[in-house]
Amino acid sequence: MNRTVTIEVKQLDRVVIRFAGDSGDGMQLTGDRFTAETASFGNDLSTLPNFPAEIRAPAGTLPGVSSFQLHFADHDILTPGDAPDVLIAMNPAALKANLKDVPRGRTLIVDTADFTARNLKRIGYDENPLETGELDGYHVVPLNLTGMTVESVKEFGLSRKDASRAKNMYALGLVSWLFQRPVESTITFLETKFAKNPAIRDANIAAFRAGYNFGETAEEFSVRYEVKPAPMPTGTYRNISGNLALAYGLVVGAQRAGLPLVLGAYPITPASDVLHELSKLKRFNVTTIQAEDEIAGVGAALGASFGGALGVTTSSGPGISLKSETIGLGVMLELPLVVCDIQRAGPSTGMPTKTEQADLLQVMFGRNGEAPLPVLAAQSPADCFAIAIEAARIAITYRTPVIVLSDGYLANGSEPWQIPVVEDLPAIDPNFTTAPNAPDGKYLPYLRDPETLARAWAIPGTAGLDHRIGGLEKEDKTGNISYDPANHDLMIRTRQAKVDAVARTIPPVEVDDPDGTAKVLVLGWGSTYGPIGAGVRRVRKVGGKVAQAHLRHLNPFPSNLGELLKSYDKVLVPEMNLGQLAMLLRSKYLVDVVSYAQVRGMPLGAAELAEVIGNLVEETAGIDDDARHLGTAAAALKHGEALADQNGHLNPEGAR
Prior knowledge:
By secondary structure, this protein is α/β, with parallel strands linked by helices. It contains 22 helices and 22 strands. The strands form five sheets. A seven-stranded mixed beta sheet has the order 11-10-12-13-15-14-20, sandwiched between helices. Strands 3-4-2-5-6-7 form a six-stranded mixed beta sheet, sandwiched between helices. Strands 17-19-18-21-22 form a five-stranded mixed beta sheet, with helices on both faces. Helix 7 runs parallel beside helix 9, helix 10 (242-257) packs parallel to helix 15 and helix 12 packs parallel to helix 13. The protein is globular.
């Protein structure tokens, strides 16, 4: 006979949850499903998948641990959170690998099934941490999730091994109950995913429901938590990852230009999903070519642009190196080409599944000769959509390759995205040349638009518009091969001037400086947008005056950037590299910016940035070391204790 359990509901403003287990435990799927439930509920959210590069690292080992972190809230948030309030650890390795990130007082839900002497020893535990007192100070909920899962699905006749694979769904059901998530979408998902294998389908659904029901009857949980929906502008939303947003943006950019989209790509982590997604969109006049190598991929894309399409190629740092000669050919031919660099940790093969933003100097200068091109950077997963359209606009309007920088954090992370009305987005005019453009009735392929300096673009086969192509230097206007020194100098300077002209059509840098009295500006680019914004909020919360700005256009820079930098006493530039943007700013504007550089394969933390920003603010204000430190105060906000109304965190008693 089941006992009656009185469940208290605690109101929280935000929660950070991390699912962690072996790379075969389905943690990414579990996180994706919890994210989908949370998105449908209406919370603002941000996610951070983290998984090993190996296809299948040895089971139960530290290198094989995979995790998925989700931050959801009843208000606007910017990051996946610095540290989890709840860790769900599916084995000893997952516990050990992630425990250092969990503050004391938070909740650990631990599957005890694999806590055997053998498994503990292989990851460096001499004794069971569940029994030694090592976890004192945490709210530990030890459960034999594997055993309970096997028991809940025994009616379906699966082997123990197959039955235990549903433990991630049992855990998902339990956490869905704990945080009052809507479950209908997960059940529908399982029905669809395993439709061809009824036993597996029914077992996963049964495990999911059993985990949910366990929460209602178990003595371990006397509290449930509620995080209300976040207020958002009226519209239709969906949860979207950076790679999916990038794929959709590329399609929309081509559609708004009335051009077919041709992607030439070679699979590489973390860019492959753009290829996967675009391959599903043939109905939108999209052609995808999975080439035999990186060079063939970019060659196909550039050839498609020559033929009158929007050519696109996607890769990561190692592939961009291989594509550099053909990108230079695109600069010489002056054809539209969108090159997407989804950055990862390097050099060489580096850490393929970890994030970094260290390709900036490569994409700026990593070609032979003077080969300038525009460079853009997305600042959030959803912004990948807008930045792709902007790249298409610039590439088509100015007849140039354009490089889009994303990274593994944006590519795999996700957030809510308000779906736009495509017809309301600005059209892009490819402005094809369809007739001879010279007074004598000839076609001059390098005759330029006086405003944009873009050359003429004629589709091959158009009568009377035949012209030379190739990588040899072009003669001004005619496009004939030229070795004339003066002509070479003219063409080099003209191509640079064309890229510089892009600055006239991009918006000025916007500064967030609430009362206009800040002496410190924090300037970022790319995926540091969220951590910088969260760090700035924390410093302001304790009285620090600090301004924030973010760059989406990195070449050319916005026209007001130099003036902006010189209007602040100190400019801090946080980056996930060794200071590449800082170096560019110093050389161009002669401003001694302060570089904060970390290259750990993980996003910057809001708490660490708050401390760095706070210390610089008080140093600039002339506050001595004996005074109350903004940096120290900001660091005290670690994990968000003072955000909102200082509520929304789990401790052993479940209090706010």
